[in-house]
Amino acid sequence: MMPIRLLRWLWRRSLHKDIFNPPVDRREMRGTEMDLQRSLEISERMIEKVRGKRNVLIVAHDNPDPDALAAAYALSHLFLVKAGQNAVIASGGIVGRRENRTMVEKLEINVVPMNKIDRCQYDVVCMVDSQPGTGNSTLPDDCRVDIIVDHHPQRVEVADNMLVDIRNDYGACATILYEYLLAHDVYLGTRLATAMFYAIRSETQDLGREWFPPDRKAYQELLSLSNNRILFDIAHAKVPRNYFLNFNRALESARIFHDVLVFNLFEVDHPDMVAEMADFLLRMEGVGVVLGMGCCDQEEVLSLRLDREELFAGKIIRTVVEGLGSAGGHGMIAGGQIRPMTGNRAVQKELENTLIKRLLKELDYEPVKGRRLLAGDCNN
Ligand SMILES: [Mn+2]
């Protein structure tokens, strides 16, 4: 039986038509299978664009996640095999999460920090799992980007000589790249297959979150090509003591407003921590929305998680940070950045209160006093 709170919640949502009723169901909007013809044509043009060029750059978004890393790695592999062209993979921020660091080390993915990159030296600039002007890349907004492969909603204005393949109806950017490789019948080594498999696995939470039929097909095919020993090492990477302190801070600070849980880590040593804690806390019974915050390197990092796709996390977070920073995302996962942010806790706390107010308003909820997650009586 549905708890009364959930029914009330659904009813409130149905009033908020804009959010509750997406214009189209993306799953029905497009074919259910891979689109190898499209993949062949567009990737052929990308290959031609880099052929014979001196230097090619592939930019992943800042603090790259497995999907961005695998997509960049796969694109560089495609260029190497089909055009004999080497490419440099770069990103800003850090690979923070231990799983992701283990992935980079064990699979030998060479990622150059953006501050070591001189844009002028590159004839072709590609961007994966991200788009210019969305705030999650240190690549300057005015920098020309020639090739974009992404699965986030389109926000970039496509210029004449740009090659853009944005597929909103793919759960992982790595799946699009898998199609390119498949369409060209490119041999996939174990390292690359393992990277792409882990990307789809973590991005879709093992085909449980925002997955589409092509992701499932890629996941199944890549599994048999992957090294399961390395997959285990990645998924069970050892974590430092500080990781548990962050866990503790997330739990201690977590407060619940209706079915919205908000936590604030204050200072974090890497931004991925915020997203990881947000995923973790979404498991709380009766919670459908999680907003996490943390400050890293003078930047406030936000992470929004929803337990259903129809609410459009990307749209919600953009409204919530409007005028304060930049944000974007998919249906159930989204992130944002506010720069510059001081390390002062009082200022961070004030920002938290502002964001809570805005989030509750956007979700059409009454303002209420938050209930601590770890309050004394935990029986309900
Ligand atoms: Mn992605």
UniProtKB/TrEMBL annotation:
Residues 55-200 form the DDH domain. Signal peptide: none annotated. Pfam families: DHH (PF01368). InterPro entries: DDH_dom, DHH_sf, Oligoribo/pAp-PDE_c-di-AMP_PDE. This is Phosphoesterase, RecJ-like. It comes from Desulfuromonas acetoxidans (strain DSM 684 / 11070).
